[in-house]
Amino acid sequence: MNREGVPGKSPEEMYIQQKVRVLLMLRKMGSNLTASEEEFLRTYAGVVNSQLSQLPQHSIDQGEY
């Protein structure tokens, strides 16, 4: 990951965006998230919505192995 930062985004915003992305990818791959992880996603629902559209498509989505 690029640690130099993105202009206009604070380190906290970057952290939240990256954490949301990782949690969504874990969920998408079938991992069970903890209650605190699910609560984090609910808290940052706006970030979740923007990240969902950016997730890469994976063969798991189509039920292929």
From TrEMBL:
Q: Single GO cellular component annotation?
A: nucleus
Q: Which domain of life is it from?
A: Eukaryota
- Intracellular or extracellular location(s): Cytoplasm; Nucleus
User: Looking at the Swiss-Prot or TrEMBL record, what is one Pfam family this protein matches?
Assistant: ICAT
Q: Which InterPro entries match?
A: ICAT_dom, ICAT_sf
Keyword annotations for this protein? Cytoplasm, Nucleus, Phosphoprotein, Wnt signaling pathway
What is annotated about its quaternary structure and interactions?
A: Binds CTNNB1.
UniProt-recorded name of the protein: Beta-catenin-interacting protein 1
Lineage at the top is:
Eukaryota, Metazoa, Chordata, Craniata, Vertebrata
